[in-house]
Amino acid sequence: MVDLANNSNASDDFESAAVKAVDELVGRAERAGASDVHLQMCGSGEMGEARAQVSFRLDGLMAPVDEFSAAVAGRVFGRIKYLARLKTYQDSLPQDGRIAREKINAAHDVRVATYPTVTGEKIVLRFFPEAAQSLDELGYQSEPRAVLETFLKSQSGLLLLTGPAGSGKTTTIYSCLRHLTQSGGRHIITVEDPVEQVLPGIMQTEVNEARGLTFATAARHLMRQDPQVLAIGEIRDEETARIAVRAALTGHLVISTLHAGSCSGVLERLLAMCPDRYAVAAALALVFNQRLVRRLCAACAGEGCGDCLETGYKNRLPVSEWARMDDALRAQVREHGASVFQPAEPLAESGKVLLKENLTNAAELERVLGS
Ligand SMILES: [Zn+2]
Fold this sequence. Notes:
The protein contains eleven helices and 13 strands. By secondary structure, the protein is α/β, with parallel strands linked by helices. The protein has two domains: about 10-125, Beta-Lactamase, CATH 3.30.450; about 140-370, P-loop containing nucleotide triphosphate hydrolases (Rossmann fold, 3-Layer(aba) Sandwich), CATH 3.40.50.300. The strands form two sheets. It has a seven-stranded mixed beta sheet, with helices on both faces. Strands 3-2-1-6-5-4 form a six-stranded antiparallel beta sheet. The chain is globular. Zinc ion (ZN) binds near residues 300, 304 and 307.
């Protein structure tokens, strides 16, 4: 617990203590490898006092790490809002902002979101990710990596990634785009919501629904920019689905995500939005369904140590299944629909490979995949 309240009565000291508290909190979260920091005001604690709970999200799971007294929390919340250029007095409406890394001595820029809850205000600090990593660095095993890389070599076709929120789909898209820029020579355009990483050599656009720039309107106009590769953050409406399918059929490599729980579920949803089975079967090249599992800490092999904050896990890696379209499958899809579009090996089998390599353990696989 940061001992701010007893520091001094002078408000200057109080201010500088708030500055220090925010810097320290962010530094501590970064050192722990947290993806975001949650600060939640609570009306009353065990002793009936107001306080703020501080939690880190580590490898996808929330971990409580600290508490601030109400006096300290007020200063810390005020400092964060000031840095993010939000209205410091406003705590009954949500606000969004951003803090540049140098203002808080951090290694990452921070996205700030405030939200009013019944027990008081909540602030989430989310670290913008590092530069795009390679598929290898993301922890893909050799087979799924080869499948993705083969797709990226082709000139046209649609790749759809699926999996629940937080299953690394966007990170994988960035990694694919990085791979494409490194092989060079192609005109790559993205439509994202929001742009999380700026990639050199790629034309990136951010969706702005308030101003009428949706995925569909952006994608429609971007086709006139003559891209060879089009990455669309998410397909969630019929028009975007049709644009993606048509682009893939007309000599473009298209990468996107679509919300579904399985490979056949992706095709089913795509067909619901774009009912032309011939076009969809011809356009779709690959569906990747993935989850993220926590990786056993390399320093302690899962025993728990200072490096992994005694959790036994450090970082995450994807476990994936995929279905690749070929001519035989195309004919079957045209005749029978989405149900025939199944992965060669289900998620559970890919999980066993990670288990055999001692990269994760059975408890973690069960947590993520179910038993
Ligand atoms: Zn460890």
